[in-house]
Specification:
Layout (H helix, E strand, L loop, with lengths): L1 H22 L4 H16 L9 H15 L15 E5 L7 H11 L6 E4 L5 H7 L6 E2 L8 H12 L4 E4 L6 H13 L4 E5 L15 E4 L2 H7 L7 E4 L21 E5 L14 H10 L5 E4 L10 H7 L3 E4 L4 H10 E5 L8 H8 L3 E3 L19 H9 L6 H12 L1 H14 L34 H9 L3 H16 L1
Parallel strand pairs: 1-2, 1-4, 2-3, 4-5, 5-6, 6-7, 8-9, 8-11, 9-10, 11-12
Helix pairs in contact: 1-2, 1-16, 2-3, 3-7, 6-7, 9-13, 12-14
Length: about 475
């Protein structure tokens, strides 16, 4: 098995090298587009590749050449805001947008916001509460170069740019890289919310914010030269609440996350725990929020077995979500991919929380409440009245409390003092989860040579290739 893994690793390295060699032979327009596709592929496949720093530097140098004399560009005049946030696109739900909004609120003066993709009107209306001005694309740019110039105009005269972008947003990275060459005083702060996957940006960052212990392990593989500073995800809590110790048979059990976080992976699954909970507590119901019942086939057998006692629902409006969480007595974190701060947030709300320890761990001290196996989870629930929740509560506040995160953030932004936090008290040794096979290929991914076709065949699963071929055929019919 070790030989096979090493063999697949060699195939992957050969595939990526081949792809980068092709990119460097393309004209600038196509090179950026193809680089974005490669970034998207690495983002969605944990292949053990977390940076493409040499490619980033190459594309930045080419962009500088393509721009020529920048004096013809009418750069935006700097206003009172020296700080600019950059996001690829924002959403009305999810933690990515909320994190950026809260960080913006920590500053005395509202910063500006630059969006590298076309936003919806709903997003613009919401974000106007958090940012002084919002610069965005109103229509698709005529070329890659015109998009880079658009981004560059807003970046060049700032003192501090805070990147909160998608992992494959090579446009923002190249624009920031060019801006740093034109303005050496510009500092780039990178908030890597998706810290468990590949991301562009590690070659240009001056400050790299840490979110979790798992992310710290991955960061060692990114070739970072930036100063590292622990940030943590802020959670708002109005008052300290006592933890509900008494879960009884008949009480509602709840879990909520995006549907992909429940998909069984690497022999880890939440389904045995769901089965055990509903079998043990025969009068209770369990609701899973975030399920696509038509696509998430792994839930089907469990749903058939427990019928109406297992409620599978899609994403809910905030008011409805809050209504259901207020009725639940027990909260189970998603697995094999944890729900991030949702778990800690429910704990701070006074909910009895537990779940299974994941390979992706180190995101919150609330993980002390998780167990290694199903039997231990059941035992914890039955004996929770004996547990010292106050110690966990204090640890969670130290990492996620709004004042604590604000203090760490402002210390970095204003004083250039960078924070290190020891999280060893709630997480054991972490090994990165690496799959040496591509299991998902973006539909717009381009195969540009026969050699590349052979190499992607060697590193992809058969099912993945079939799905990719079907997507391509469907695209050709449009």
């Amino acid at each position: 098995m070790k030989f096979k893994s090493e063999n697949n690793k060699n195939y992957i390295e050969s595939f990526i090298k081949c792809h980068i060699d092709i990119i460097k032979k393309l004209d600038f327009e196509l090179a950026i587009i193809t680089a974005k596709q490669l970034g998207c592929l690495l983002w969605h496949n944990n292949l053990g590749v977390y940076e493409l720093n040499d490619l980033e530097s190459y594309l930045i140098d080419v962009a500088v050449f393509e721009l020529g004399d920048p004096s013809y560009i009418e750069f935006s005049k700097s206003n009172q805001n020296d700080i600019l946030f950059i996001a690829t696109e924002l959403y009305l739900t999810g933690g990515h947008s909320r994190l950026m909004e809260r960080l913006s609120g920590f500053l005395d003066v509202k910063p500006d916001l630059l969006l590298s993709e076309i936003p919806t009107q709903e997003i613009l209306s919401r974000e106007s509460d958090f940012f002084d001005s919002i610069v965005f694309l109103e229509k698709k740019p005529s070329s890659v170069l015109s998009k880079l110039i658009f981004l560059l105009k807003s970046i060049i005269n700032k003192k501090c740019v805070i990147l909160s972008i998608h992992p494959d947003d090579i446009y923002s990275i190249v624009a920031c890289g060019v801006a740093k060459k034109l303005n050496p005083n510009l500092k780039i702060h990178f908030i890597n919310h998706a810290d468990h996957v590949f991301s562009f940006g590690s070659s240009i960052a001056d400050v790299w914010y840490e979110i979790s212990e798992y992310g710290k392990v991955i960061d060692k593989l990114r070739g970072l030269k930036a100063n590292k500073s622990f940030l943590g995800i802020p959670i708002g809590i109005k008052e300290r609440r006592s933890i509900q110790h008494s879960f009884q048979d008949g009480d509602l059990i709840l879990s909520a996350a995006s549907n992909g976080k429940y998909k069984p992976c690497n022999n880890q699954s939440i389904l045995p725990l769901v089965d055990a909970l509903l079998s043990k507590y025969k009068s209770s119901k369990m609701q899973i929020i975030g399920v696509n019942i038509y696509k998430d086939y792994w839930w089907w057998l469990c749903k058939i077995k427990f019928g109406n006692r297992l409620v599978l629902s899609g994403a809910l409006e905030y008011t409805m979500y809050m209504d259901i969480t207020s009725k639940a007595k027990l909260y189970i974190d998603s697995h094999p991919f944890p729900g991030g701060t949702a778990f800690a947030e429910q704990f701070l709300q006074g909910k009895l929380c537990t779940g299974l320890i994941s390979s992706y761990r180190g995101y919150s001290p609330a993980e002390k409440l998780k167990m290694n196996d199903v039997l231990d989870v059941i035992s914890f629930i039955n004996n929770s009245v004996e547990y010292d929740f106050d110690n966990v509560y204090d640890s969670v506040i130290n990492i996620h409390g709004m004042d604590k995160v604000k203090e760490r953030f402002l210390s970095s932004i204003i004083d250039c003092n960078y924070t290190s936090v020891d999280c060893s008290s709630y997480v054991n040794v972490i090994e990165p989860v690496i799959k040496h096979k591509i299991i998902s290929i973006p539909s717009d991914f381009r195969i540009l040579s026969y050699a590349q076709l052979i190499k992607i065949y060697n590193v992809s699963t058969i099912l993945c290739l079939i799905k990719f071929a079907i997507k391509k055929l469907q695209f050709m019919k449009l």
